[in-house]
Predict the 3D structure of the following.
Amino acid sequence: MAVYGIDLGTTYSCISKYENDEVKIIADEEGGSDDLLASAVFVKDDGKELIIGEGAKEEGVLAPERLFQFFKRWIGKNPETEPDYKHYIVDGKEYTPVELSSLVLKRIKEYAKKAGEEVEDVIITCPAYFDYAQRDATKKAGELAGLNVLAVINEPTAAAISYSNDLYQESQNVLVYDLGGGTFDVTLLKIEIDSTSNEKKIDVIATDGDAFLGGADWDNEMYKLLIEKYREQFDVAEEDIDEELKETLRSATEKLKQKLTMQTTVTYKTKYDGERIQLEISREEFDERTKGLLGKTEQLLNSMMNKAEEAGMRETDIDVVLEVGGSTRMPQVQNFLRERFGDKVRFYEPDKAVARGAAIVAYTKAYEKDMEALRDCIKRGGKVETDPHGKVVITTTEGKVEILDVVTQKDEKGNIVLPENTQKMVISDVAPRTFGVIVQDSSIQRYYSDNLIKKDTKSPCKIEKTYYTPEDSDKISAIAVRVTESVSYDDENDLVPEGEGNNRSYVCPDSSLELSVRGMMLIPLEPGLPRGSEVDVMIELTDLGELHVVATLRKTKTTREITINFSQISDEEMRKMKNRVGKTGVTAE
């Protein structure tokens, strides 16, 4: 069975699959769109039927309170700790960002089925700066839609893989500038191709981004310009402009912005309440109005390059700069990148590169899995045949029949010849957060978080370190090993203790570091154990996005361990959401 790649975007989503040595984008024929599905959900009056896609945006012009967009910005976020958390409520019913994302995926699955594609196994993409809770929420959105999510991979990694596969089969350093409709990220990757082992290795060197920066913010500035032009033309205060007219103007902003990509001036014409409205906006004044937004992307680019330089890669080492995301079509973005990077800039499949790359990764993973199954079948003495298309059909010794996505040849004796030297793909990432343990330095009564795995460290990774008990065992009966999470880049961060004993909590004076305790283990101390006894700690960040921590009191060999999953969604919440999503119908119009 095929494995599909899905770009679950903030404003538009896309699904693709790799077959016959090329990527196929699957379009929503029924929705009347091209290859993209608008990530928009409109709730009909009965609440039982939802419109997904461009039809949702059209319905939302007259009933904007029933239209939900940009929910990806909040997926995986905790409403209890996020003061600006966006709640999506209509008719007294709240839809979570995970549910709304799953409805978009459900619509994708349905229209793909009508196109003859049975979508089950998928790889979904997400921004590179997403933390593990956001990645887990993205995975759960797929599961709610009835998909088997094999992996969640970075969007810029997928884009770079697509470019490398299509146009440039050589080792290179790739910067991906991804400005989508709702989010922005910038990532530097190193692609190495080993011709001897035929292995393609993709390493994320550094990344940065903003979940609240994208084309929608440019749209908002276009809307403000339209309001100002209207006020000038009709000499009215903003509060006196009819709400219906405001929504009409807002619905025109995206198309006007797109026209300014090709034209130096656009004119918006409409008739409202007997008045003829004609508003003109030039590219120059739009660029001036939005230069602060462009400046934010430059700040994030500079921040990312500072991290890259610490990792040993300079700006002059970059071979190619990929413009990804529909918003990179804006001339101001293209001019900015070309002024900085010259002829290294490539305008490559901005809307579809991510989905295309996800499909290539999906196929590669599925192919490697099939090859393992084929070798195992041969080793165990199972039956190997080929179908009329040359694909391998295996029957294991247990009688299980599988059709593999592997094409083989036969020698002159009719024996199956295994494909040799097929390219393998190895993808490494960077840690999106910093993880450590709380340490007590009893000599000076100092408490601090010892940051063992720092943000942007290559992952998966494992660190081991030895600590020492702060007191004799006649004074304390156990030691607590507390695991911390933050966004710090420092080796250590001072903490202020509050309370006593093992119930003590710790406060980081610098709240911007977002430091919190994610888990705790208690190791009992036997009588007679002196102060300074060794405690060995191992902390491992796995490729599954889990944090595994083991602490061992060396003298007594007493061991405690904990595995921290960063999901913020309980099994009960998943059950309730699955029930709601399952009962909800989705349509294109």
In short: The chain has a mean pLDDT of 89. The radius of gyration is 27 Å. The chain has ten helices and 36 strands. The CA atoms of residues 436 and 451 lie 4 Å apart.
